[in-house]
Specification:
α4 runs antiparallel to α5 and α6 packs antiparallel against α8. The chain has a 5-stranded antiparallel β-sheet with strand order 3-2-6-5-4, sandwiched between helices. Strands 1-7 form a two-stranded antiparallel ribbon. β5 and β6 form a beta hairpin. The relative contact order is 0.19. The two termini are about 20 Å apart. The chain is α+β, with helices and mostly antiparallel strands.
């Protein structure tokens, strides 16, 4: 679930919406380590690994949040959105995506929450197939909880959400729908009116690499990101391929 709040390290960890770090070999560990000392040592190791991962997650998402905040306050972005100039919106998003290394996609949404523009270039500068863009621009985003929260919120703070059914990730990257979405309201400084929302996406592979690079209990266990309701942030499990290690 999405959260709002300040910019402290604690906030960024809470806002991620990670329900837990799932340990793939949890059952094996609890069954095989009957010795209390060994079990305690393992749990301490898991706790330390979790803290290290939280730090790395913050380090990964913070630049993306900052990038989105800067774009939301960009005078040209505000002018293009308030005037409804879609060509200018698209050009600005393409410029933003090609000059960034922190994000994989950027979209602009109108004040009703529906999409108005998205980058038509990949971060590499390669053109995105027109059918993928057309599919997104004809998708109804008005009921998006993330957009509505940004439009109804009384601050200009970003909202970060881990998504398992992201339509943008599906369309652009052939993903099962895993992504990290950072959204910030676009506020017209002349009127104080919320003109819309700018939202960036980070592909979840970036965070999964953090798990792969983090040794857990000396290699005896594997970590998984899990939502509050128990869904795994795994392309295979999210796409219905295979069974998760812990139900």
């Amino acid at each position: 679930p999405s959260r709002t709040g300040g910019c402290t390290a604690l906030w960024i960890v809470c806002v991620l919406g990670i329900g837990a770090i799932g340990i793939g070999s949890w059952l094996a560990l609890t069954l095989s380590h009957v010795d209390n000392v060994n079990t305690s040592a393992t749990m301490y190791s898991l706790g330390d690994s979790g803290s290290a991962l939280a730090t790395e997650i913050e380090r990964t998402v913070r630049p993306a949040i900052r990038r989105t905040e800067i774009l939301a306050k960009n005078a040209d972005v505000i002018a293009a959105l308030t005037s409804g100039d879609i060509a200018s919106q698209t050009s600005l998003l393409n410029s933003g995506i090609c000059s960034a290394t922190e994000i994989d996609a950027i979209a602009l949404f109108k004040s009703d929450g529906n999409i108005t523009a998205i980058n038509t270039l990949y971060p590499s500068g390669q053109l995105i197939p027109l059918d993928k863009i057309a599919r997104l621009l004809t998708t109804d985003f008005t009921n998006s909880r993330l957009n509505q929260n940004c439009l109804r919120n009384d601050t200009d703070l970003p909202i970060l959400e881990f998504q398992t059914r992201c339509r943008i990730a599906k369309a652009l990257f052939n993903s099962s729908g895993l992504s990290v979405a950072c959204s910030v309201p676009v506020i017209d400084p002349a009127t104080g009116i919320r003109a819309g929302v700018i939202s960036s996406r980070i592909r979840f592979e970036r965070l999964n690499r953090l798990i792969e690079e983090q040794p857990i209990a000396g290699g005896a266990a594997h970590a998984y990101f899990i939502t509050d309701d128990g869904n795994y942030f795994s392309e295979a499990y999210n796409g219905g391929k295979g069974m998760p290690p812990v139900p």
